[in-house]
Write a structure and sequence with these properties.
The complex is a heterodimer of chains A (about 180) and B (about 230). Chain A is an alpha+beta fold. Chain A folds into 2 domains: about 70 residues, Arc Repressor Mutant, subunit A; about 80 residues, Arc Repressor Mutant, subunit A (Orthogonal Bundle). Chain A is built from 9 helices and 5 strands; from the N terminus they run H-H-H-E-E-H-H-E-H-H-E-E-H-H. Chain B has about 230 residues and is mainly α. Chain B has 2 domains: about 110 residues, no CATH class; about 70 residues, Structural maintenance of chromosome 1. Chain E (Arc Repressor Mutant, subunit A). Chain B starts with about 25 loop residues before the first helix and ends in a 7-residue tail after the last strand. The chains are: A alpha+beta (about 180), B mainly alpha (about 230). The interface between A and B is large, with 48 and 40 residues.
Chain lengths: ~180, ~230
């Protein structure tokens, strides 16, 4: 393995959170970002099947994670526990904020049809959403957006990984025949 | 998530049903799906009646959000009953706003399924730097999640747990926590066993130890003291 790949491997092993390309590139200023990407790709393929962990692109960075098939056994031994599942109310609120951000509490309440203050406070506390700016309207309401932790707990690279709304509404509408290319 | 829990009238235990629905829109969607009616051509009178009877049955009429929706449904129902003047171009279907919100909410529910699945998949992979939750939480994590939240007037069965512990003590000199509660224990079982353990430890019938941090608890029969 290249020295740079080994260096990245060590850093990713030491870190307890995903590291971004920028952070990884700062380890060796002489290397440069393209070389880091090449080394990451090499590292990922080195871990692609012969190992119990794999290198995963997540929340705008890279992280070593255990393979899914070992979850059960590791959890049974209580070496690590799955985080608690989010409640339907929390997921609803997250979905709205993820797609409408920056969005105020009133709009979330309106879409859900219930008061969402308590749920939003909890999500802020868990670091899944945060105040990103203030709105223009009356009282300059706080507007919320999702955080990197939100991407992390869902295993997403970035917000682009979320399903597109058009894709979803296909399920509501009747599927339209797809034109074959050529 | 919204399982058809509505039909269980024989259940006398006080069950908090509020949590079954995340709000009035959720309940409405549930009714619409059950009736297999078209959202865009909502039979308001029928749905409004069902909505009212459900919130009555479940005691949801205490909750403001549900009451507000009930009022809205009744108003739409009334508006639809009013005669329409011929050639009235201004007329707008009073259901339009509600239908728009329901469609939007339905989309959110689809996203909720997607997000929930993504979170479940992610939860099966552990990263480095895992911090173990405090022991109490780890014990609680072993308890299967209850489907319904019951308010049970029954006290904890500490006596039963004490008897079980005494039987174990008579049989074995040393055993672990899992021998006491076993798998699939309920919260009441866990708490009863725990209280019984502490009580027996206080009476010096046994000693509790944890050989290493976060390791399993070891329960040891106390060596009988010389009779005074």
């Amino acid at each position: 393995m290249q020295p740079l790949a080994k260096l990245l491997e060590a850093a990713l092993f030491a870190a307890s959170r995903p590291l971004t390309i920028d952070e990884l590139a700062s380890l060796d200023p002489a290397a440069g970002e393209p070389a880091v990407r090449v080394a990451l790709a090499a590292l990922r393929s080195a871990y692609s099947d012969e190992h119990g962990v794999e290198l995963v692109e997540i929340a705008g960075g890279w992280q070593f994670l255990t393979r899914r098939e070992y979850a059960e056994t590791i959890e049974r031994a209580q070496f690590a526990l799955r985080p608690r599942r989010l409640s339907p109310a929390a997921l609803e609120t997250l979905a709205i904020i993820a797609y409408r951000q920056p969005v105020g509490r009133i709009e979330v309440d309106e879409i859900r049809g219930v008061d969402s203050g308590a749920v939003m406070d909890k999500l802020v506390e868990r670091g899944l959403i945060e105040v990103v700016t203030r709105g223009e309207g009356l009282g300059r309401p706080l507007l919320y957006g999702t955080t990197p932790s939100f991407l992390e707990i869902l295993g997403l690279k970035d917000l682009e990984d979320l399903p597109r709304l058009e894709e979803l509404s296909v399920a509501l509408r009747r599927p339209t025949p797809v034109d074959e290319p050529e | 998530m919204t399982s058809p829990i509505l039909r269980d009238p024989g259940n006398s235990a006080f069950v908090v049903e509020l949590e079954k629905f995340s709000g009035p829109l959720d309940l409405l969607l549930h009714l619409i799906r059950e009736d297999e009616v078209d959202i865009t051509d909502l039979p308001i009178a029928k749905i409004a009646d069902q909505f009212l009877s459900v919130i009555n049955e479940l005691g949801l009429n205490q909750a403001a959000d549900y009451l507000e929706m009930a009022a809205r449904l009744l108003r739409i129902k009334a508006q639809l009953l009013l005669p329409r003047r011929l050639g009235d171009d201004e007329w707008e279907d009073p259901r339009a706003e509600l239908v728009r919100r329901l469609l939007e909410y339905q989309q959110i529910r689809e996203l909720v399924d997607w997000l929930g699945h993504a979170a479940d998949v992610r939860a099966e992979r552990f990263g480095r730097g895992y911090e173990a939750p405090p022991p109490a939480e780890r014990v609680i994590a072993l308890i299967p999640e209850p489907m319904l939240h019951r308010v049970v007037p029954r006290p904890l069965d500490v006596e039963g747990a004490t008897a079980r512990l005494n039987a174990l003590l008579a049989e074995r000199e040393q055993f672990g926590w899992t021998d006491v509660v076993g798998r699939g224990a309920t919260i009441a079982d866990v708490l009863s066993a725990f209280i019984a353990l502490l009580e027996l430890a206080k009476r010096s019938s046994l000693t509790l130890s944890q050989p290493e941090p976060f390791g399993p608890m070891v329960i040891t029969r106390a060596t009988p003291r010389e009779a005074a």
